[in-house]
Amino acid sequence: MARPDGTRQRPEPPRPSMPCTSTTTRCEFWTWSEDCLRPECCTQHLVELAVFTHDLLRRNDILHWIDYGGLLGAVRGGELIPWDGDIDFGCLRSDLDKIAALGPEIAAAGHKLETSDPLVARIYFSEVNLQHADIFLWDEHDDVLDLHAYPGFSWPGMEDRRSFPRRFVEHLETVSLNGQPMPAPSPVHEFLSEYRYGPDYMTPARGVFDYELVPEVSAEEMTPVVRELLEELGRGERRLITVEAAHPRPETGFRARWASAGRPLAAPPAAVEAAGAELVSASDRGQPAVEELLRSIARIRQTADELEHADATLFVRRLGRRSVRLARMANTRLRRRDRGPAPA
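The structure assignment produced for this chain is given below.
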């Protein structure tokens, strides 16, 4: 459908007609619009999970604290950040057996415990509604807590979010989250500044879902220009997510691999130059973080454009890559056959 000015109007992605409950799937609100703002039903479920998890761990004498986005929201404004999709806690890995033993109590409350991830224990709102509280498992040694995190778990501008001194959780302080008291590392402002989001943590900034799109950015490289480019990258990614929701295809999707989905592995130089001319001054060009971010922004834009305008490029590119994979597989099988059976 065309707008009055002649430009193409993006189809509205699907939305549920009713609020989500424990008997329905959760709202995929990040696909509803480029704002990605959480609806009230999901906010209520997350607050309920936060209170339940805190009370459960407290009653069972398990050291725990609120962390990451939940902690940031509590300190910054006393409530969950409007675009957060979960609630995060931290505890010691040595308490994992205690947490696992609470599975029946968690199930009796209508929730579900999952402990298969080596990094985090997770309490789901229900069997079908996958709103969740993450309990990150920290290893303790030499008065330091370490998290064996996924690659890309670092925050742009932070040297390390995988470890911090144990002193921050020896005497916890209380913060308020949506009117509920929660335990927090202390001193909380030093913790957030030095070990989570940097000294400007009180300034709201939207993140990026897929951190493979974000280059390593050191604290020295975190200039105002880089911050603006990170914001632009987040906007571009949110646009791509909503475009995917309006144009569902089995080969794409928020977490689909770029290569198998036929997405461009690198944006054309002309697209990178166009993004650079629009977003930064000539004097900022050449900085590694700036150039890497411009490439990611251009690639996101190109992919969203190809999807939004039903461009055949993605399909042809995906088909070509699949053909290459099949040819390589066939070649490998032929070489194995030519070598004969392996010796017994």
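Interim note for the steering committee: Residues 224-330 form one domain. The two ends are 66 Å apart (CA to CA).
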